[in-house]
Amino acid sequence: MRIFFILLQSYILCGFFNFSALLGQCPTSISVSNNSKCISVNPANSGTTVSGFTYLSGSNPALFYESTGNSNGCMTYTPPPGTTTYNINGQTCTYVNGILPVNFLTFNVKSDNRQARLDFSTASETNNDYFTVQRSGDALHFENIATIDGAGNSSTEIQYSFTDISPLGGDNYYRIKQTDFDGKFSYSDVRSVSKVTAEKSQLNTFITDNILVINTPLENYDVTIFNSWGAEVKRYTGMQKNSTFDVHDLRSGVHIIHISYPSRAETFRVVKL
Protein backbone atom coordinates (compact mmCIF):
# COMPACT_ATOMS: atom_id res chain seq x y z
CA MET A 1 0.00 0.00 0.00
CA ARG A 2 1.30 3.41 -0.91
CA ILE A 3 1.00 6.32 1.51
CA PHE A 4 0.53 9.87 0.39
CA PHE A 5 1.33 12.86 2.53
CA ILE A 6 -0.22 16.13 1.52
CA LEU A 7 1.03 19.26 3.13
CA LEU A 8 -1.84 21.47 4.17
CA GLN A 9 -1.12 25.14 4.37
CA SER A 10 -2.24 26.51 7.72
CA TYR A 11 -4.11 29.73 7.37
CA ILE A 12 -1.84 32.68 8.17
CA LEU A 13 -3.61 35.82 9.17
CA CYS A 14 -1.25 38.71 8.88
CA GLY A 15 -2.07 42.22 9.99
CA PHE A 16 -4.69 42.42 12.71
CA PHE A 17 -7.86 40.74 13.86
CA ASN A 18 -10.99 42.40 15.20
CA PHE A 19 -12.94 40.22 17.60
CA SER A 20 -16.11 42.32 17.42
CA ALA A 21 -16.14 42.29 13.62
CA LEU A 22 -15.68 38.51 13.45
CA LEU A 23 -17.74 37.39 16.39
CA GLY A 24 -20.07 40.08 17.70
CA GLN A 25 -20.66 40.35 21.43
CA CYS A 26 -22.13 37.92 23.94
CA PRO A 27 -25.22 38.97 25.94
CA THR A 28 -24.33 39.88 29.50
CA SER A 29 -26.61 37.41 31.30
CA ILE A 30 -28.80 34.33 30.87
CA SER A 31 -31.42 32.52 32.95
CA VAL A 32 -32.91 29.05 32.55
CA SER A 33 -36.55 28.02 33.05
CA ASN A 34 -37.64 25.66 35.80
CA ASN A 35 -37.95 22.78 33.31
CA SER A 36 -34.69 23.67 31.48
CA LYS A 37 -36.57 23.88 28.16
CA CYS A 38 -36.31 27.66 27.76
CA ILE A 39 -33.70 30.34 28.37
CA SER A 40 -33.89 34.08 28.94
CA VAL A 41 -31.15 36.12 27.24
CA ASN A 42 -30.34 39.75 28.08
CA PRO A 43 -29.81 41.87 26.05
CA ALA A 44 -31.44 40.13 23.07
CA ASN A 45 -34.37 40.43 20.67
CA SER A 46 -36.01 38.63 17.74
CA GLY A 47 -32.82 39.08 15.67
CA THR A 48 -30.68 37.21 18.19
CA THR A 49 -29.74 33.62 17.35
CA VAL A 50 -29.11 30.92 19.96
CA SER A 51 -27.90 27.56 18.65
CA GLY A 52 -30.45 24.83 19.42
CA PHE A 53 -33.15 27.33 20.42
CA THR A 54 -35.97 29.23 18.70
CA TYR A 55 -37.03 32.80 19.50
CA LEU A 56 -40.25 32.91 21.54
CA SER A 57 -40.94 36.49 22.62
CA GLY A 58 -39.66 39.63 24.28
CA SER A 59 -36.75 42.00 23.98
CA ASN A 60 -34.04 42.73 26.54
CA PRO A 61 -34.54 40.09 27.82
CA ALA A 62 -35.79 37.75 25.09
CA LEU A 63 -37.09 34.24 25.62
CA PHE A 64 -36.04 31.20 23.57
CA TYR A 65 -37.27 27.59 23.65
CA GLU A 66 -35.56 24.37 22.56
CA SER A 67 -35.89 23.97 18.79
CA THR A 68 -36.90 20.30 19.13
CA GLY A 69 -39.66 21.03 21.66
CA ASN A 70 -41.98 23.83 22.79
CA SER A 71 -42.37 26.37 25.56
CA ASN A 72 -44.94 24.42 27.56
CA GLY A 73 -44.04 24.43 31.25
CA CYS A 74 -41.50 27.24 31.00
CA MET A 75 -42.29 29.29 34.08
CA THR A 76 -39.79 30.59 36.62
CA TYR A 77 -36.35 31.62 35.31
CA THR A 78 -33.18 31.51 37.43
CA PRO A 79 -29.44 31.86 36.64
CA PRO A 80 -27.90 28.43 35.96
CA PRO A 81 -25.31 27.49 38.61
CA GLY A 82 -21.68 26.97 37.71
CA THR A 83 -20.21 27.36 34.23
CA THR A 84 -22.46 27.04 31.17
CA THR A 85 -21.74 27.65 27.49
CA TYR A 86 -24.06 28.67 24.63
CA ASN A 87 -23.49 29.59 21.00
CA ILE A 88 -25.14 33.00 20.62
CA ASN A 89 -24.95 35.07 17.44
CA GLY A 90 -22.30 32.67 16.14
CA GLN A 91 -20.03 33.16 19.16
CA THR A 92 -19.19 30.77 21.99
CA CYS A 93 -20.40 32.51 25.16
CA THR A 94 -19.35 31.15 28.56
CA TYR A 95 -21.30 32.19 31.67
CA VAL A 96 -20.52 31.78 35.36
CA ASN A 97 -23.70 31.56 37.45
CA GLY A 98 -25.57 33.14 34.55
CA ILE A 99 -23.25 36.15 34.23
CA LEU A 100 -20.79 36.83 31.41
CA PRO A 101 -17.52 37.41 33.34
CA VAL A 102 -15.90 39.41 30.52
CA ASN A 103 -17.45 40.80 27.36
CA PHE A 104 -14.61 41.05 24.83
CA LEU A 105 -15.11 44.01 22.53
CA THR A 106 -12.00 43.70 20.33
CA PHE A 107 -8.92 41.49 20.08
CA ASN A 108 -6.20 42.61 17.65
CA VAL A 109 -2.97 40.72 16.95
CA LYS A 110 -0.29 41.95 14.57
CA SER A 111 3.30 41.13 13.69
CA ASP A 112 5.76 43.99 14.08
CA ASN A 113 9.53 43.62 13.56
CA ARG A 114 9.61 39.94 14.60
CA GLN A 115 7.42 40.65 17.62
CA ALA A 116 3.71 40.04 18.15
CA ARG A 117 1.57 42.80 19.65
CA LEU A 118 -1.76 41.91 21.25
CA ASP A 119 -4.40 44.57 21.91
CA PHE A 120 -7.79 43.71 23.34
CA SER A 121 -10.61 45.58 25.01
CA THR A 122 -13.59 44.65 27.17
CA ALA A 123 -17.05 46.20 27.11
CA SER A 124 -17.78 44.95 30.64
CA GLU A 125 -16.19 42.87 33.39
CA THR A 126 -17.79 41.06 36.33
CA ASN A 127 -15.74 39.65 39.22
CA ASN A 128 -12.71 39.56 36.90
CA ASP A 129 -9.40 38.97 38.69
CA TYR A 130 -6.88 38.70 35.84
CA PHE A 131 -6.15 37.70 32.24
CA THR A 132 -3.55 35.16 31.16
CA VAL A 133 -2.03 35.46 27.68
CA GLN A 134 -1.46 31.99 26.25
CA ARG A 135 0.57 31.01 23.17
CA SER A 136 0.86 27.87 21.06
CA GLY A 137 2.78 26.72 18.02
CA ASP A 138 0.15 24.19 16.94
CA ALA A 139 -3.20 25.57 18.23
CA LEU A 140 -3.44 22.55 20.53
CA HIS A 141 -0.91 22.90 23.33
CA PHE A 142 -0.81 26.32 24.99
CA GLU A 143 1.65 27.85 27.43
CA ASN A 144 1.20 30.86 29.71
CA ILE A 145 3.42 33.78 28.70
CA ALA A 146 1.97 36.77 30.58
CA THR A 147 -0.54 37.81 33.25
CA ILE A 148 -2.53 41.07 33.14
CA ASP A 149 -4.60 42.37 36.05
CA GLY A 150 -8.34 42.66 35.40
CA ALA A 151 -10.61 45.50 36.45
CA GLY A 152 -12.76 43.50 38.86
CA ASN A 153 -16.13 45.01 37.98
CA SER A 154 -16.61 47.48 35.16
CA SER A 155 -19.35 48.56 32.76
CA THR A 156 -17.17 50.80 30.58
CA GLU A 157 -14.70 49.96 27.83
CA ILE A 158 -11.17 49.14 29.02
CA GLN A 159 -8.11 48.70 26.77
CA TYR A 160 -5.35 46.13 27.36
CA SER A 161 -2.12 45.38 25.49
CA PHE A 162 0.85 43.00 25.56
CA THR A 163 3.89 42.49 23.31
CA ASP A 164 5.40 39.05 22.79
CA ILE A 165 9.03 39.94 22.17
CA SER A 166 10.10 36.36 21.35
CA PRO A 167 7.36 34.67 19.32
CA LEU A 168 7.86 31.21 17.92
CA GLY A 169 9.06 30.70 14.37
CA GLY A 170 6.22 30.17 11.90
CA ASP A 171 2.63 30.44 13.12
CA ASN A 172 1.85 31.72 16.62
CA TYR A 173 -1.59 31.02 18.10
CA TYR A 174 -2.84 33.23 20.93
CA ARG A 175 -5.82 33.18 23.27
CA ILE A 176 -6.81 35.03 26.44
CA LYS A 177 -7.77 33.10 29.56
CA GLN A 178 -9.94 35.09 31.96
CA THR A 179 -9.99 34.10 35.65
CA ASP A 180 -12.50 35.24 38.30
CA PHE A 181 -11.69 36.00 41.92
CA ASP A 182 -13.26 32.64 42.86
CA GLY A 183 -11.01 30.73 40.45
CA LYS A 184 -13.56 30.09 37.69
CA PHE A 185 -12.23 30.81 34.20
CA SER A 186 -13.17 31.07 30.52
CA TYR A 187 -11.30 31.53 27.23
CA SER A 188 -11.40 33.82 24.24
CA ASP A 189 -11.34 32.31 20.77
CA VAL A 190 -7.95 31.49 19.22
CA ARG A 191 -6.30 33.79 16.68
CA SER A 192 -2.94 33.49 14.92
CA VAL A 193 -0.18 35.59 13.46
CA SER A 194 2.85 34.48 11.44
CA LYS A 195 6.44 35.31 12.29
CA VAL A 196 8.71 35.04 9.25
CA THR A 197 12.13 33.67 10.14
CA ALA A 198 15.32 33.68 8.13
CA GLU A 199 15.92 30.01 8.90
CA LYS A 200 12.84 27.98 7.99
CA SER A 201 12.63 24.21 7.76
CA GLN A 202 10.76 22.46 4.97
CA LEU A 203 8.53 19.43 5.19
CA ASN A 204 8.41 17.78 1.77
CA THR A 205 5.66 15.49 0.53
CA PHE A 206 6.46 12.03 -0.79
CA ILE A 207 4.70 9.14 -2.47
CA THR A 208 7.28 6.77 -0.96
CA ASP A 209 5.93 3.77 0.93
CA ASN A 210 5.61 4.36 4.67
CA ILE A 211 8.22 7.11 4.77
CA LEU A 212 7.93 10.71 5.88
CA VAL A 213 10.95 12.79 4.89
CA ILE A 214 12.04 16.09 6.43
CA ASN A 215 14.61 18.01 4.43
CA THR A 216 16.22 20.77 6.46
CA PRO A 217 19.66 22.28 7.11
CA LEU A 218 18.88 22.42 10.84
CA GLU A 219 20.83 20.49 13.43
CA ASN A 220 19.73 19.29 16.84
CA TYR A 221 15.98 19.52 16.38
CA ASP A 222 13.08 17.50 17.77
CA VAL A 223 10.07 16.14 15.87
CA THR A 224 6.73 15.43 17.54
CA ILE A 225 3.74 13.97 15.69
CA PHE A 226 0.22 14.53 17.03
CA ASN A 227 -3.01 13.01 15.76
CA SER A 228 -6.10 15.09 14.95
CA TRP A 229 -7.28 14.88 18.58
CA GLY A 230 -4.06 16.44 19.83
CA ALA A 231 -2.61 13.25 21.30
CA GLU A 232 1.11 12.67 20.84
CA VAL A 233 1.75 9.55 18.77
CA LYS A 234 5.47 9.76 17.97
CA ARG A 235 8.48 11.72 19.18
CA TYR A 236 12.04 11.92 17.85
CA THR A 237 14.77 13.95 19.53
CA GLY A 238 18.24 15.15 18.58
CA MET A 239 17.67 14.91 14.83
CA GLN A 240 20.33 16.15 12.42
CA LYS A 241 19.58 17.79 9.06
CA ASN A 242 17.69 15.60 6.54
CA SER A 243 15.77 12.82 8.28
CA THR A 244 13.40 9.99 7.38
CA PHE A 245 10.71 8.40 9.55
CA ASP A 246 8.82 5.13 9.32
CA VAL A 247 5.15 6.05 9.70
CA HIS A 248 3.41 2.90 8.45
CA ASP A 249 1.53 2.55 11.75
CA LEU A 250 -0.05 6.01 11.68
CA ARG A 251 -3.78 6.00 11.11
CA SER A 252 -5.27 7.73 8.09
CA GLY A 253 -6.33 11.33 8.62
CA VAL A 254 -4.88 14.67 9.70
CA HIS A 255 -1.63 14.73 11.66
CA ILE A 256 0.36 17.64 13.06
CA ILE A 257 4.14 17.66 12.69
CA HIS A 258 5.83 19.89 15.28
CA ILE A 259 9.52 20.67 14.65
CA SER A 260 11.31 22.45 17.48
CA TYR A 261 14.87 23.67 17.76
CA PRO A 262 16.69 26.16 20.00
CA SER A 263 14.48 29.26 20.49
CA ARG A 264 12.14 28.39 17.60
CA ALA A 265 9.44 25.97 16.53
CA GLU A 266 7.43 25.29 13.40
CA THR A 267 4.23 23.35 12.86
CA PHE A 268 2.89 21.63 9.74
CA ARG A 269 -0.39 19.86 9.11
CA VAL A 270 -0.33 16.69 6.98
CA VAL A 271 -2.92 14.21 5.82
CA LYS A 272 -2.29 10.50 5.54
CA LEU A 273 -4.61 8.95 2.97
Strands, helices and their partners?
Blueprint: E1 5-8, H1 19-23, E2 29-33, E3 38-42, E4 53-58, E5 62-66, E6 77-78, E7 83-88, E8 91-96, E9 102-112, E10 115-136, E11 143-154, E12 158-164, E13 170-180, E14 185-187, E15 191-195, E16 202-203, E17 211-215, E18 219-227, E19 232-240, E20 243-246, E21 253-261, E22 264-272
Antiparallel strand pairs: 1-22, 2-3, 2-6, 3-5, 4-5, 7-8, 9-10, 10-11, 10-12, 10-13, 13-14, 13-15, 16-17, 17-20, 18-19, 18-21, 21-22
Q: In what range is the share of β-strand residues?
A: over 45%
CATH topology of the largest domain: Immunoglobulin-like
**What is the CATH-assigned architecture of the largest domain?**
Sandwich
CATH class of the largest domain: Mainly Beta
**Using DSSP, what is the number of strands?**
22
What's a concise summary of this model?
The chain has 273 residues and is mainly β.
Description:
The protein is 2% helix and 58% strand. It is mostly beta strands and 273 residues long. It has three domains: 5-11 and 201-272, Immunoglobulin-like, CATH 2.60.40; 19-23 and 101-195, Immunoglobulins (Immunoglobulin-like), CATH 2.60.40.10; 29-96, no CATH class. Strands 9, 10, 11, 12, 13, 14 and 15 form a seven-stranded antiparallel sheet that branches. Strands 1-22-21-18-19 form a five-stranded antiparallel sheet, with no helix packed on it. It is globular and about 65 Å long.
